[in-house]
Amino acid sequence: MASKNGIVFEDYFPAMVEKLGTDGFMKELTNGFKLLMDKEKGVITFESLKRNSALLGLQGMSDDEVRCMLREGDLDGDGALDEMEFCTLMFRLSPSLMSNSKQLLEDAIFDEL
Length: 113
Description:
Blueprint: H1 13-36, H2 46-52, H3 63-73, H4 83-92, H5 95-99, H6 101-112
Helix pairs in contact: 1-4
């Protein structure tokens, strides 16, 4: 699967949801965000993504590819990804999760009640 910026990755998210459940999967997304974010700013910046890209197996990414990845997920135009933008981007990059997103949302809401 490829994103708009041409980066191709294997979609493991549906298997992760099946194995971890909705809460476990969302916790893993949160952990991924924290791993990539700038600790002082609380968001994923160009610098923090570039610095930590090897953790994703993307150590060969050019600066333009890193910027493109940020732009793809940056919904508010501030040049960085907050946790919601990161999670939204991860869902958008997984067609299987997008097709099941309504059920995942309902599961998450009803688990809270």
